[in-house]
Amino acid sequence: MKRFSLTLTVLCLIVGAFGLAPVAAQDAVDITIRCKASPPEEDWRCNNFAEVEEQVEAALGIQINLNLVQDNIDWGDYKNEFVLSSEAGTPVDIILSGHEDIGAWAAAGIIMPLSQEMIDAHPEFADLVPNLWESVMYDGQIYGIPQDAEARPIFYSKLLLRDLGWSEEEIESLPDRVTSGEFTFEDMMDTAEQAVEEGVVEEGNGFWHRNGNGPDFLYYYYGMGGEVENEEGKMVFDQAAALRVYELFDELVERGITRSDMIGLDGNTIINPAIASAEEVLFNAGGTWNWPNWAINYIADRGGNDYLVENMGLTLIPAMDTGEAITLTHPLVYMISSQSENPDVALALIAAVTTPEANNRHAIDSFHLGILQSQLESEDYLNNPQISGAHYMLDHTTALPNNPNWGSWSEAYYTGIQAVENQDLEPEAALETVVQQLQNELGDNVVIQ
Question: Is the pLDDT score of 16 beyond 50?
């Protein structure tokens, strides 16, 4: 096993940057790490720390009493747990959460900034995919280290495209044609409508998307040219871009491409089984992590991963108004509590799991994209063509803003999507409702344009 190395000189620099005295040799240090993970494919989020504990102990000359707390509770409960424990003065040392939490948590002072000197002291961090650093920035400072990356692509059924008469060359070239802009979102909608009209899929099964609010809905707004945050750090709501999004979701239902009750459908009993079969839904907007979930939990009796490789593909989100194919990456990141008594040890542990060996364990098992540039040179990573083949999507990615007001903006924007798709409001009326909600909740913190 590759050993993690850290000289005493570098250690002194790190703890000096924190304003702390170095941990004495043989001292016992308590470190608690909190992770949310879907078992078993995401268990390496916390379990990786157990793999490197001894090497970090040897490098620092200390004993670490490592306490890993990992489960799969609701995200809202999980995040509230950290906020409440921070307010009570009993937070964990390291918390894993979505990068968008940095905005609120940094502003509240419950996570600590990581200086450039601290980052530079760990050579592992220099290997991060460069554009992932933007996802951990707030107010000009770094507040976390990415644990994983993913893409939110369009999954397409090769099986159903064959039923539509597509040749194998047309099917296999689809990702390249999407990337180049040759095959657009409108083309995807036309293909989905054709599949419905020819009886290849049932009405409403041409294109599916997530069944509740989440980051995925933002790439439609980006695809229509929308801006989310300005240089002054205020949220921005582009009415023209948002209206185009609401018109799009109205059109999806009107043309029989998407179900009007898509939002709220049960994922375990309806959505995942239908998509994993590759027999019922032509196009689906999902996340790369869906792949192992489908293979393990829904089609294992059909061959699992081998069945998906034969019958399903994935591609970027086809170009909309901007003319560029995109995706959205939502890195989960390790953040250090501002109340941690041993942030130097916490950061050393994070560095130790920020290696190709450690990240491959998570990426390959959970179908997440690697966070490190050198993973594209890793045999284990390259031996999984579905993951390594999707790594290019990080060159086309967008992300959520790290802004304390993101939650309110997101909820309002999503309200419009839900109202239009459920056929409760016309796009223009939905837009008016959303603008009013944003003005009421955010006031001067949002620019309506």
Answer: no
